[in-house]
Structures are given as C-alpha cells and as structure tokens.
Amino acid sequence: MAIQAGDRMPSFELPDANGALVRSQDLLGNGPVVVYFYPKDDTPGCKAEACAFRDQYEVFKDAGAEVVGISSDSSSSHGQFARKYSLPFVLLSDTGNRARKAFGVPRTLGVLPGRVTYVIDASGTVQHVFSSQIAATKHVDEALAVVKRLAA
Fold first, then answer.
1. For residue 27, with 0-12 CB atoms within 10 Å meaning exposed, 13-18 middle and 19 or more buried, which class applies?
2. Is 51 part of the annotated catalytic residue set?
3. Stretch 97-121: mean pLDDT, rounded?
4. Would residue 5 count as lying in a domain?
5. Is residue 80 part of a domain?
6. Are 99 and 70 in contact (CB under 8 A)?
7. Taking residues 52-79, what's their average pLDDT?
8. Mean pLDDT, range 31-59, rounded to an integer
9. Could you tell me if 119 and 41 are in contact, meaning their C-beta atoms sit under 8 angstroms apart?
10. Dihedral pair phi/psi, residue 6, rounded to 5°
11. Cross-strand partners of 125
C-alpha cells in the first residue's frame, strides 16, 4: 500500500555512498526531509532530477530541509554518480528494494522503478507525495513549494 500525505514515514536503514548506515529516524527532528526515489544512477531523467535538486540544494537548506535520494544502485555507483555531478546530498542504496516497498513506490508500466518524492516534516509525518516518471525536474519544484510552506 502506497504511503500518502498524513501517513508516518516508514522505518528503514540503508547504506550511503560510503557504506555508512543511515536510519530513517536519524533524518528526523531538525526540519523537513525530502526523500526522493529514482530509477537509476546516471540515466538522463535521473541525472536531470539529481542536478535540479543539486542546483536548489542551498534553498532547501536555507528552509531547514534535507534532501535524500534513494535507488537500488550500489553504494559504489552512488559515489560515482555523486562525484560526477557534485551532488551535495545523501544518496542511499536500496539494493533489496525494502525501502521502496515500505513506501509503496509503484513501478512504471510494471517494469521501471517508479520516481516518487515525499516531503516529510520533522516529526515524521508525510506532508506531500509527488509521482511522475517523466516530469523528473518537477519533483524539485513540488518539494520546494511544500518545504517553503512548512518553514513559514
């Protein structure tokens, strides 16, 4: 069942690009968290989305928010992707798709891993969900509008 606005963020524990484990609970408490699921490192849509988050990262930080990207790619792949495009935010490796399943991220056309962004408040409640496989950079606009509203 897909997580919706008003639901609690599911618990997860995933390795980052350096192999260090990040727990969902560790992301909470300081401000909103933008968790975005994407299909694959260094593909055209995913590169555009990641670079759009990168380009607005300071605006997210100024509003008190953190950005976290999650895909099924390995930690090593995430490290290469982050270095190649100077991504300043955390990328988590969900190789077993446990977090993707816990959030209920749908597959696109039954084949591709879905592209869904969640804005979660500091207490762990999902405030906004945006799903679009093709409008990759719109995820950033959607998330930023909600983060700014939460910061106001």
1. buried
2. no
3. 90
4. no
5. yes
6. yes
7. 96
8. 95
9. no
10. 100, -20
11. 8
The neighbour count for residue 152, using CB atoms within 10 Å, is 6
What mean pLDDT is predicted for residues 70-74? Answer: 96
Q: What gap in Å lies between CA 85 and CA 57, rounded to an integer?
A: 13
What is the span of the domain harbouring residue 64?
13-22+31-151
Residue showing tokens 């990328």: 91
Q: What are the tokens at 147? A: 């983060």
6 domain-assigned: no
Q: Residue 113's pLDDT is what?
A: 87
Residue that has been written with the tokens 């930080």 in this structure: 61
**Residue among 47, 53, 19 at smallest CA distance from 33:** 53
* Tally of residues, the chain: 152
Q: Is 138 helix (H, G, I), strand (E, B) or coil?
A: helix
Q: Label residue 140 by pLDDT band (50, 70, 90).
A: very high
The percentage of the chain sitting over the pLDDT mark of 70, rounded to a whole number, equals 99
Report whether 27 contacts 21 (CB < 8 A): no
| Catalytic-role residue among 46, 67, 105, 116 | 46
Higher pLDDT, 151 or 97: 97
- Looking up residue 123, the CATH number of its domain turns out to be 3.40.30.10
Structurally, the chain folds into a number of domains equal to 1
Report yes or no on 7 lying in a domain.
no
